[in-house]
Fold this sequence. Notes:
The longest helix is centred in the first third of the chain and has 15 residues, at 25-39. The chain has a domain at 63-182: Alpha-Beta Plaits (2-Layer Sandwich), CATH 3.30.70. 25% of the residues lie in helices and 13% in strands. The chain is α+β, with helices and mostly antiparallel strands and 185 residues long. It binds iron/sulfur cluster (2 copies). One iron/sulfur cluster binds next to helix 4.
Amino acid sequence: xxxxxxxxxxxxxxxxxxxxxxxxxxxxxxxxxxxxxxxxxxxxxxxxxxxxxxxxxxxxxxxxxxxxxxxxxxxxxxxxxxxxxxxxxxxxxxxxxxxxxxxxxxxxxxxxxxxxxxxxxxxxxxxxxxxxxxxxxxxxxxxxxxxxxxxxxxxxxxxxxxxxxxxxxxxxxxxxxxxxxxxxx
Length: 185
Ligand code: SF4
Ligand code: SF4
């Protein structure tokens, strides 16, 4: 064997095959042995969707637009999340809160339209980091599969968390453990 750069090279055995080697029987038995030994090992896979793995506490899934304890939308359409987004996945349109809408929107300005393109999103969480209003966070669920591209454009109505007073159960479910983790104030 010539000079080697590493010690990983192996010299090839070029001696003629024995009868047993020439019928490949031994190698077949060896291969079957490996296959059978895997039958008794713990499976690395699970039967999804019947079985689901629990996510890590820092898992970043689908976005949720948050409400305060009175059910008012937190988002003030400042656009910081869109600016922070490296994938340019977020778009929004701002509107001014009208008299009588104080129970709907916490701030004087709110997002009349808010969209996230989940095909662009890389779930980095920078939008969540950038938000000064605790208005957006990444939940413990993920975007379900869809046959059309349009199905991955999540609109405001898909993103806003259920009302904490009127839809208490759905609100708690959507909230998971995330709000406590991300709460900045
Ligand atoms: S998670 Fe990252 S890529 Fe996705 S919308 Fe937020 S900032 Fe953009
Ligand atoms: S989600 Fe937060 S950062 Fe984005 S527009 Fe609303 S308030 Fe601003």
